[in-house]
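Supplementary Methods S3. Input chains for the assembly prediction are listed below.
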Amino acid sequence: MVEAGAWWTLLAAPGLLVVLAALAVAGNAVLDARDAGRLVGVAGAVRPFLGVPRALVAQPRRLPAQDRLLWRTGVVTVPVAAVLSTLVVPFGGRVVADPSVGVVWFNAMEVLTWAGLWLAGWGPDAAFSLIGGYRFLAQGLAYELPLMFALISAATGAESLRVGDIAAAQDGLWYAVWMPLAFAAYLAGVLAFSFLGPFAYPAGRDLAGGVLGEVSGADRLLLQAGRWLWLASGAAMAVPLFLGGGAGPGLPSWAWSLVKTLLVLGLLVWVARRLPVVRADRYVEFAWVVLIPLTIVQALVPALVNLHR
Amino acid sequence: MDLTGLTLRVAAARPHVLLAAVPGGTAVRLAAERLLRARDWPRASTPAQADLLLVAGPDLPELRTPLERLWRDMPAPRARVHARTADEVEDALNAGRALLGPPAVRHASAAPPADAGGHREGDHGARERHEGDDQTPGHDGHGDHRGHGGHGGHSGGQTEMPGGLPMAGQGADRDGLTLDQLHLPLGPLLADWPAGLTVRLVLQGDVVQRVDVDEPARPIDDAAAEAFWVQPWLRAASGEPVPVGEAVRRRAAAHLDSLGRLLAVAGWPAEAVRAWRLRDDLLSGAPRAAVAPRLERFTRRVGRSRTLAWLTRGIGVVTAQKAREAGVGGPAARAGGDVTSRYRQWLADIRRDLPRLEDPAPLDVAVEDSPRGPWSAEHPPSAALIALLPRLLEGTELAAARLVVASLDPDPDELVSRGVVEVARG
Amino acid sequence: MGTTDTVLLVALGVLAPVFGVLVFTLNSMARVTFSLLASLVCVGGVTAVLGLPYLGVVIVLMMVMEMVIMAVFMIAYMMNPAGLMPMSMLHNKRGALAVSGAVFAALVAGIFLVPWPDRTASRPRDTTFQVGSALMTEQMLTMVILGFVLLATMVGATVLATHRGRYDRFGDDLDQRPAEDPVGGGVGR
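Predicted structure tokens for the full assembly:
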């Protein structure tokens, strides 16, 4: 069982999330350095963080017909929703809050990115940025339902929407093992709501950065941070949902949570570099014709198992 | 020491560079890309993301306005430098970094953004016009999404118009939605785009309804521009003996350059970087044994990627017959198909060329194709490729349109330096 | 109900109508859409605070998705292009005022006139479970019918809206494969 509500977890959870996101950025930088033939080392891994002071001194962007309020709202929504989503993610035996509808909470926070990115694309009143915002919606219509069915599969397996119950229900056999499709659909969903790698469609190079194209300074930092925070949050959530939470032999449960989260995070960073951007015009049909039926069948499996238990 | 100064110094250690390549500046661009990669200075694709504007190539009066616009859109602290030749790149970058340090910023905020910013006269060639926003390069971009192209950026005319931007018109479209028409120019300084090419699109939603291609910008002094990729063919045509190995090496590097650009547009930056690294190794004269294994791995990964093939199939089909009718030779014609078949053709060509990198036989222009097709000074192969664009792009979606252009990858240098050829022949 | 819940309830209860009023006073379609969304999110919060966490969070989840999609359509089909020009959500002001006034009066009257029952049973421990079992037992038929009606509406609306039929896609003899579409899909049908 997880223990919820200690006051310090309210500070620890965002802190841990930022650290995990930073590790993902550093890991990605190392792989970048290797591909580019530069020296692989700690110096290269921390170089992306030079962008932080840079963002803080840079001028914000001003455009003739921007909607500053909506733009800012969108930019802020993405990282804030990522942080809020972690409130229900148990780490070891601790969690900030363990509501009876934890899974739905995580899902709802993730959906806030839809609004955030659309607004971030709309705000600057620039063509590529706007197209980027719309692209995320097209992508959302494709990835969201398989993701939801993946979450439902895990919840059905545990007969509970409480994240702590789901982790506890995988005693001995992880859901990732007997619900591999749901696990895969979930991981694809994580990359999609972080708009990274194959799902970087809204921020595509063909749009000169899309939703990221017009933001500068602190706005840019927030939006970029939002991506990696979401990746870290998604990786952390995969552990209680599909990998048995903090359970494991030998080590304390926080250590198991950390190890599993880092492995999932590493896997996501690696996969993100191995695939080109999947455009929504191709992915939507694939998602609706192939993925949704498959994930529905996947959700049926734990339902039948539970009926016959 | 003040905190801001320290922050600026730290930030200047890894400036984001907006590389504005102009026609005739391919050699400069390649040198800059190689250096940026070695130094881990990320490339920005829009002025908003950039600290340093690097103009690569000769002076082009026609591009002054778009460059000015890029510069205007860059947020302070910022600097701009101009490298006219490949040898100037390193000094220009160093000068740029120095300008980004603390004192420069004070300048920049004091000086009105529109004129040369705070960074004048560095050492080398610095200053230059700016900004060409990759995205909406030709114009005032940012207002474009509502309307008639960017001409109206700031004029304001009618008082009611928010931001002084003109209203969009409507028109019939493919899906019967009668959406607003958006006039969006791609180029001339867009990232991952043929330098100097301007394609004016009329978009409804993100469906391309109409396409007009501008004449590419030309340098004032034709001799300043150099068609880097066809240089061995130009020299051979003017009677100078050129070894086949050199031409073949140049051709393979050109294909890798195009592949890198296609992969970047397709959203696969990790493989794009690999392609560009191989390109630079080839150009620096690396022996075959040094590049062959990596090239093999790269070819396997990209050529056999089912995802990439799935994403590009059926887009921008040019059958062999259509290509012939349009006067297109070279890889695009030999591939005779969609984007997938064209990038696979490039990969096949590179592998075929690999054994001949050290071939000392003299180059016969009539036998060996230049990178984009049989070389002819009167009809450079890129002209035919550009002429194909309007028909291919109409009716596609924006993402597909970018893939089509990247998979043909016309080289505007071939057009602007035609004068060089004529001089050489005459 | 603890202090936190009461404070939240009051704050959300005030914010929801405030955003609702903004819907009719703002002059940009994007802002109008998102203030409506903000209002609905507050309603979701109120529902959750009142002891229905599942319904509350689902309201937030669904309303965000729905309003963002709706923003696309509202902006795409506005008479003034792309929603840039100042606009107003008010039309037929006098009639609308009369209708909304009457509805408001009727609802307020309802509060006082309806004989509200006292709670007889004890509070359920888990309202989420209660909602689920209600939907899956006595309301099962309702939900099944609703599901089919919604699906039929979606399919019907799509069929009516699209101007390309199967003969356009598959040719006169329905034998053309792959189908001739302006943009090919990802499955290659």
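The radius of gyration of chain A is 19 Å. The mean pLDDT of chain A is 90.
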